[in-house]
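Final report, closing paragraph on structural work. Over the funding period we assembled a curated collection of sequence-structure pairs, and we close with a single example.
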Amino acid sequence: MIASIFVKDARLRPPLRILVYGIVLICLTFVLATVLGTLCASCLTSTQPSALAVQMLVAACTVALTTVWLRRRLDRRTVASLGFAPKGPWLRFFAIGIAFGAGMQTLAVALEAVSGSAHIAAHAALRSDVQLLPTMMVVLLGAAFSEELSTRGYVLQNLWEAWGSKPAALLSAVLFAAIHSYNPHLREHMWLTWAGLFAFGLFAACSLLWTGSLWLALGTHAAWNLFEGPVYGLPVSGLALSPAPVITLSISGPSWLTGANFGPEAGLSSLLALAIGALVLRALKLRGVFSAQADTREAYARS
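Its predicted structure, as stored:
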């Protein structure tokens, strides 16, 4: 009887797996960070794009190793069921995600521009763009991969198994907002910031539920951050990542619209952009655009 509290179907219950996942991920991150700090101390402390790229690659490898290992050994489920299997039109889904991320971020900036809150102040030289963008693509793709595989991959799948798809989507979005709790400037407009982060997490979770794939969420996440920071020069969830963006915007409007120092996620502009993006994504789903995706789901996700 007591064992049934912790075990179901000869497996540790999904919420406890998530707890184990978090503990293992923290421990492995500490070990690898210590090793990296010993080999290259500046790689952990520098904010230069090259150092950030190393940090993100290490983080992505850490998340991938932890997720694959526990999905196989602890969950005893297929890794493909997480949504990153290179089966079906995965590259097309990734490209659609890039279009969504770039489009929604551009829409948020356009809304600010139409209201008179954003103006183009400067353009970077072509040489600067060529030097900056490839490295920042690696940084932001690594960060997006880590967050998608952990929150919308391992955590959401286990929540789905425990309580169903809708609670899993909502709870994973709450978790996504929570892991950004210590980002700079979050408390300047706390409720709007939490709402923006939750909305992005919910959009990404819905993209998984509607497509059966994490590739669209990955493309959306990476492109959203790329256009927000290196392209438009805005803070990325409170972090200033781009000293020489492609376009430098002058932001002067109300902070409730623009998000001010935290960036668009803390403003109404991104909430509107995400709402419109979700409607478009839903329309594509209803038209059968994602029907060709290979079905790699586990039984709990098909019921």
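The first strand starts at residue 7 and ends at 8. Residues 85-301 form one domain. We thank the funder for supporting this effort.
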